[in-house]
Structures are given as structure tokens and as C-alpha cells.
């Protein structure tokens, strides 16, 4: 996929912050719709696929675990800030996925319908094998925003409620 937008709904977030190990773990569950441009040529699992068009993926109950290691440093005012070092994420689409791709097989409706049936019947395996690049792009964006947040917020200024 070259580019697109992600929308989320019905999210829940749970986080753990271990200051001794300098590790933050965030678990969240969300429904998500991903829209963008795709180019396909080759095989998807066992079937050949070709196309160049728009894709919409509706994902139900995506469970994401985002783990970040960090260091700390003091700013010019002596306040301690978190400095993210690296992150890792895992994900699983738990309750279903629906895929819609335009212009599959250069608009051949019969082949396109068969591919859509295959993709949507095998949503779990498709999501597992091909979802990581999409999720990685989202995780990169989240990580960049986390870096900006911690540059601006000292640890003592962060309030966490349970």
C-alpha cells in the first residue's frame, strides 16, 4: 500500500509503566478502517492476484501491544524527560476483517468476486500475513508522536490515573 488513512472506533487502552526497567507497555483494542491505494502482482497465499486501485480494510477488535524502551535525561531546567530508544509491537485481528479492493484483475468482475470471497473467507490468515506492514506504518507514526510528547513533558508533569 502506498498511502492511506486509518480511522478507529470503540477503542480501549491499558498501559503499564515500569520506571525501574525503563519500559512502557500499552495494550489497546480497537476497530479500525484502513483506506488507501494498493498495487498487487503475484500471489496472495495460494492464488494469483493483480490489480492497481483503492483498498478498504475493516478490522474488528484489533488487539495491539506496543512496548517501548527508554532512557531519561534532564533538560536545561533540571526536569527529567523520557527519551524513547526503541519500540516493538505485536497485533492480532480478533473478531473479523473485511477487504474491498477496486480494479482487481483489471476490472474482471468474475475474478474479482472470487478473490474477494477468498480474502474475506480467509481474513484471519490474510490479516496475520499481510497486516504487519500496515500496522508498522501506524506504529511508526505513533512512536514519532510519543517522542514529541516526551520532549515537551517532563516525567513529573505526567499524571497517570487508574
State the main characteristics.
162 residues, alpha+beta, Bactericidal permeability-increasing protein, domain 1, 5-stranded antiparallel beta sheet, 5 strands, 26% helix, elongated, Haemolymph_juvenile_hormone-bd, To_sf
Q: How would you describe the overall organization of this protein?
A:
The chain is 26% helix and 52% strand. It is α+β, with helices and mostly antiparallel strands and 162 residues long. The protein has one domain (3-155): Bactericidal permeability-increasing protein, domain 1 (Super Roll), CATH 3.15.10.30. Strands 1, 2, 3, 4 and 5 form a five-stranded antiparallel β-sheet that branches. A hairpin with a 5-residue loop joins strand 3 and strand 4. The longest helix is centred in the last third of the chain and has 21 residues, at 132-152. The chain is elongated. 15% of the residues are buried.
What is the strand content? over 45%
Q: Pairing-aware structural class of the strands and helices?
A: alpha+beta
Please give the CATH class: Alpha Beta
Reported for the largest beta sheet, the result is: 5 strands, antiparallel
CATH topology: Bactericidal permeability-increasing protein, domain 1
Instruction: Give the terminus-to-terminus CA distance.
Output: 38 Å
Overall geometry comes to elongated
Indicate the percent of residues in helices.
Answer: 25-40%
Uncertain regions: pLDDT < 50 for 5+ in a row? 1-7
Task: Using the CA coordinates, give the radius of gyration.
Answer: 20 Å
Quote the average pLDDT. 89
InterPro entries: Haemolymph_juvenile_hormone-bd (IPR010562), To_sf (IPR038606)
